[in-house]
Amino acid sequence: MASESTLRFGAQTDEVTSLLRIVNMVRRGEASTRPEIGRVTGLGRGVVTQRVDQAIAMGYLQDGEFGPSSGGRAPRTLRFRAEQGRILVCALGALHIHIGIAALDGDVEDHIDQEWDIARGPAETLDTVMAMVDELLGRNAEVPVWAVTVGVPGPVDFDSGRPVAPPIMPGWNGFDVRRRFEQRFDAPVWVDNDVNLLAFSERARRGDDRLDLIYVKVGTGIGAGLLSQGHVHRGANGAAGDIGHVRVRDSEEQCRCGKIGCLEAVAGGWALVRDAEAAIADGATGALARAADAGEPVNPERISIAAENGDALAISLIQRSARVIGESAATLVNVFNPSFIVIGGAVASAGELFLAEVRQRVYELSLPLATRDLTIVNSANDVREPMRGGAELAREQLFDVTFPRWFAGGRPTIESIRGTVG
Fold it and tell me: Is 84-200+384-418 in CATH node 3.40.50.970?
């Protein structure tokens, strides 16, 4: 194992650089044996052996089974020790909380969720989150938490982890979300917009680190996560992708943010509920109206299901939502030129009925060159998506961004991530 002076925080020697590279190569599956590492890096056998031995002694790598032989002695494989720490993911939506734990390879091991109104404020919400975390960790083996990611349904200043004027989160503006988790786990915490977590999930699912993608979430509200060459684009103040509050032509609907004519006020889930209830009050008939008359609450999920089952009112609402969202997405396509648009969320769960309308408007209103290689698809609609995305965010920050700051200590700490240790 290298000396403490060599592996001290901030050291930028060839030894440190090659050691970090080897750990990440094994972690990503780019090389699984010592000979493969030598071929990829150009390092000599003795140097590779030394670096691998250091990584094993520090707890990052472990010898595995013997690999296939190419004529001589079969090489022993190496594996990244993904089980040595956990990533805790807390995905907060407008009307729900999802909590998950993942290994360091991003595999979601367990999760829990419940309905919750984010408008109840940060104190009550985080009390509920911590109770759910206790329940989840209590039913799993005790493994140290190496990182926490928190997704919230609004713009976030990524550097500080504080929400910035979130339209549907009263009381959250400027709130220090990280502090409660840091105090509990003494681990680094990253806070991001909830749709960015979904974009990270798509990147991991597709296995493409250079993906150009827009993830559009149409739930209670509307937002977009933007991937440019595999990197999330957050903008100067965390507002990138907040398409729910762009202006819809000729609309005079009042939005929850206080402005008039926002996309969300026309096409978001809460707007569809508003319009469905108004139509039912005016005498609309069908399955959705019958359910409402029977006392079942109208919500975005129920509207989507009713549309899939042929309810005329629900179909009209879903198609109108998809049409104006497609128009806004076309602007993003012309400016951003993605290779994929992924549509998710409760409203978009109406499936092809929703997707077909979005596709039509995007292709009608976008430049031919911008749509030449464009694919528009529904999301996997898996409840674990935000947990996978949160784990992917943490993995990127831990191993691609901050690894040189903390690897000498064997695990990340708040101080090492922030660069406040000597």
Answer: no
What does the alpha-carbon distance between residue 39 and residue 64 come to, in Å, rounded to a whole number?
19
Q: Read off the pLDDT of residues 165-214 as tens digits, 9 standing for 90 and up.
A: 888 899 999 999 999 999 999 999 999 999 999 999 999 999 888 999 99
- Tens of pLDDT, residue by residue over 323-363, are 999 999 999 999 999 999 999 999 998 889 999 999 999 99
Domain 4-80 matches domain 207-378 at the CATH topology level: no
CA-to-CA dists, residue 250 to 13, 247, 282, angstroms:
61, 9, 23
Per-residue HEC secondary structure of the chain comes to CCCHHHHCCCCCCHHHHHHHHHHHHHHHCCCCEHHHHHHHHCCCHHHHHHHHHHHHHCCCEEEEEECCCCCCCCCEEEEECHHHCEEEEEEECCCEEEEEEEECCCCEEEEEEEECCHHHCHHHHHHHHHHHHHHHHHCCCCCCEEEEEEEECCCEECCCCEECCCCCCCCCCCCCHHHHHHHHHCCCEEEEEHHHHHHHHHHHHHCCCCCCEEEEEECCCEEEEEEECCEECCCCCCCCCCHHHCECCCCCCECCCCCECEHHHHHCHHHHHHHHHHHHHCCCCCHHHHHHHCCCCCCHHHHHHHHHCCCHHHHHHHHHHHHHHHHHHHHHHHHHCCCEEEEECCCHHHCHHHHHHHHHHHHHHCCHHHHCCCEEEECCCCCCHHHHHHHHHHHHHHHHHCHHHHHHHCCCCHHHHHCCCC
Q: Kindly report the pTM of this predicted structure.
A: 0.90
| φ and ψ at residue 24, rounded to 5 degrees | -70, -30
Q: Which pLDDT band, with edges at 50, 70 and 90, does 143 fall under?
A: very high
Statement: 4-80 belongs to CATH 3.40.190.10: no
Instruction: Give the pLDDT confidence of 262-296 residue by residue, as tens digits.
Output: 999 999 999 999 999 999 999 999 999 999 999 99
Q: Is the pLDDT of residue 6 over 60?
A: no
Topology of the domain covering 207-378? Nucleotidyltransferase; domain 5 (3.30.420)
Give Cβ neighbours of residue 403 (< 8 Å, ≥ 6 apart).
20, 23, 24
d(CA 86, CA 109): 9
